[in-house]
Write a structure and sequence with these properties.
The structure is a single chain. Helix 1 packs parallel to helix 13 and helix 6 packs across helix 8. The protein folds into two domains: about 5-100 and about 285-315, Rossmann fold (3-Layer(aba) Sandwich), CATH 3.40.50.720; about 100-275, NAD(P)-binding Rossmann-like Domain (Rossmann fold, 3-Layer(aba) Sandwich). The protein is about 35% helix and about 15% strand. Helix 10 links the parallel strand 9 and strand 10. It is elongated and about 70 Å long. By secondary structure, it is an alpha/beta fold. The longest helix has 19 residues, at about 285-300. The chain is built from 13 helices and twelve strands. The structure holds 2-keto-D-gluconic acid.
């Protein structure tokens, strides 16, 4: 019997791709590479596979009359046109929980790295410069003030780790979480003014675009560091480059960018930034767990079973638990 057809809208992680290949015929970006061929088979597509960074536009979903699920390999699904998916009765799933620890770990890694200059110190040793004299002093992380922008699962996991460093932790979010026991600020700017490290971990998309702008960076100030493990779109990248260049803030640790995998060249040579290539969830253990969950959601969706982890907007959809 022929395997059911699914569309991969981007290059998938091999673990997710291999799992899908066992059960499905996977069409690799056919909507982009072969428009005529895609028209001929669009109605056979029963599922759409995507990632946190990729785009699943409404126009594509409208061409898939028999799609039963969009399964995103990632917790963020800002690339998916969810209202259009819902309008067409196509639920969207993602991979929450399984990557929370890794993303929180990398956020703390960037806090330590920018505060203590770990990446720069590594370069200093490798360049043979130690004999010239000691590496410049860093910023003490333990006991410093940490602000978290976005207080969902990952934001809370960052707070738990930061409390182990004896940090004074505060946050901003759409609403105050009464049970957090932490100080709440109503805006990113108000929070930034009160902290040494500002860690951004909100969902991406239109609602948070440029939430971190020139005003917030000014409030963070010349001794403040920005960490972004959310989406590049949340930070006004040009304002950030200017702030780093002009000493408006002390430095930044960035895992995400506006136009990945392109990173603005202006950042490459800045001594006060640490740059990582969108790798917050990139461990063997977590990528396996993400692949298992994304595959299980695809399988459930295409066979009419309850979905394991639908995105919140799709929880109420008929046939979705
Ligand atoms: C990516 C992410 O999905 O979970 C998210 O939202 O951004 C990442 O985990 C991952 O890089 C796979 O593309």
């Amino acid at each position: 019997m022929a395997k059911p057809d699914v569309l991969a809208v981007t290059k998938l992680h091999p673990l997710y791709r291999q799992a899908l290949d066992a059960l499905y015929t996977v069409h690799d970006r056919t909507h982009e590479t072969d428009s005529a061929g895609f028209d001929a088979m669009a109605q056979r597509i029963v599922g759409v596979a995507s990632t946190g960074e990729a785009s699943v536009p409404g126009g594509l979903l409208s061409r898939l009359p028999n799609a039963k699920v969009v399964s995103v390999f990632g917790v963020g699904y800002d690339g998916v046109d969810v209202p259009t998916a819902i309008a067409h009765g196509i639920p969207v799933t993602h991979t929450p929980e399984v990557l929370t620890d890794d993303v929180a770990d990398l956020a703390m890694g960037l806090v330590l790295s920018v505060g203590r200059g770990i990446a720069q110190a590594d370069q200093y040793v490798r360049a043979g410069r130690w004999p010239e004299g000691p590496f410049p002093l860093g910023r003490k992380v333990s006991g410093a003030r940490l602000g978290i922008v976005g207080f969902g699962r990952i934001g809370k996991a960052i707070a738990r780790r930061a409390s182990g460093f004896g940090m004074a932790i505060a946050y901003t979010a759409r609403s105050e979480k009464a049970d957090s026991g932490l100080r709440f600020f109503p805006s990113a700017a108000a929070l930034a003014a009160e902290v040494d490290f500002l860690v951004v971990i909100t969902p991406g998309g239109a609602a948070t675009r440029h939430l971190i702008n020139a005003e917030v960076l000014k409030a963070l100030g010349p001794r403040g560091f920005l960490i972004n493990v959310a989406r590049g779109s949340v930070v006004d990248e040009q304002a950030l480059i200017a702030a780093l260049h002009n000493g408006v803030i002390a430095g930044a640790g960035l895992d995400v960018y506006v136009n990945e995998p392109q990173v603005p060249e202006a950042l490459w040579s800045m001594p006060n930034v640490v740059l990582t290539p969108h790798m917050a969830s990139a461990t063997n253990e977590t990528r396996q767990a993400m692949a298992d969950l994304a595959f299980a959601n695809m399988q459930a969706g295409t066979s009419g079973q309850p979905l394991l982890t639908p995105v919140p907007e799709c929880v109420g959809m008929s046939g979705v638990r």
